[in-house]
Write a structure and sequence with these properties.
By secondary structure, this protein is mainly alpha-helical. Helices cover 73% and strands 0% of the residues. It contains nine helices and no strands. Helix 1 (9-29) crosses helix 2, helix 5 (89-105) crosses helix 8 (153-171) and helix 6 packs across helix 8. It is elongated, with a radius of gyration of 19 Å.
Length: 201
């Protein structure tokens, strides 16, 4: 990826404006709706500015994915802090509801991350996100366990990647006649099977 790094504050603001506008276009009209002319217009920058920092359209997509993943992780970390104030099954229920609501808000981007655009699933930010998410889940499970569990690494792996699969499914639409709360309750049942020592209210 040959991208010029923005150094000055003005340049950083311009790059952020480009990324935000690209994310909005993708969320609204999909990856196919993204063009440099449209992006420049919505970001309020000259077309030439885009090529100063991004080699091509896929390069812009990678930057959007990195930005959105960082935002989602920041929100997840904040939500985990809320759950830790109430570390029982009800707290986990709220966390799952928050997670799935975030998924529906970023459905188009999640479909891209899942590999609908060839090769984008190799974006380093995606691997970094899963590593961080797994650490968060392991910490959360440790805090919510009703008894001391020495090693929750495998449990955290199964829960994290199981949730990832569910999130990708929801990004493509909920099952007919089902709501997010229906999915949350089934997820809780599955997590209790994987980690039977979870604290209940």
């Amino acid at each position: 990826m040959k991208r010029r790094k923005p150094v000055q504050q003005r340049s950083r603001r311009r790059v952020q404006a480009i990324i935000r506008a690209a994310a909005q276009i993708i969320a609204r009209d999909g990856y196919g709706g993204l063009s440099t002319n449209r992006l420049a217009r919505e970001a309020g920058v000259p077309v030439g500015s885009i090529y100063e920092y991004f080699e091509n359209k896929d390069d812009i997509l990678v930057a959007v994915i990195e930005h959105e993943i960082d935002e989602v992780m920041r929100h997840l970390q904040q939500e985990v802090q809320q759950v830790l104030a109430d570390p029982d099954e009800e707290g986990l229920r709220r966390f799952l509801r928050f997670l799935l609501t975030e998924v529906t808000a970023h459905a188009e981007l999640l479909r891209l991350i899942a590999g609908q655009i060839h090769g984008q699933s190799d974006v380093p930010a995606v691997s970094r996100f899963f590593a961080q998410a797994e650490m968060l889940v392991r910490f959360l499970l440790q805090q919510m366990a009703a008894e001391v569990v020495e090693d929750l690494s495998l449990d955290a792996y199964l829960v994290t990647h199981g949730l990832a699969g569910v999130c990708i499914g929801i990004a493509n639409g909920l099952p007919p006649g089902k709501e997010i709360d229906d999915v949350v309750e089934r997820l809780l049942t599955g997590i209790r099977t994987i980690v039977p020592s979870l604290r209940r209210r």
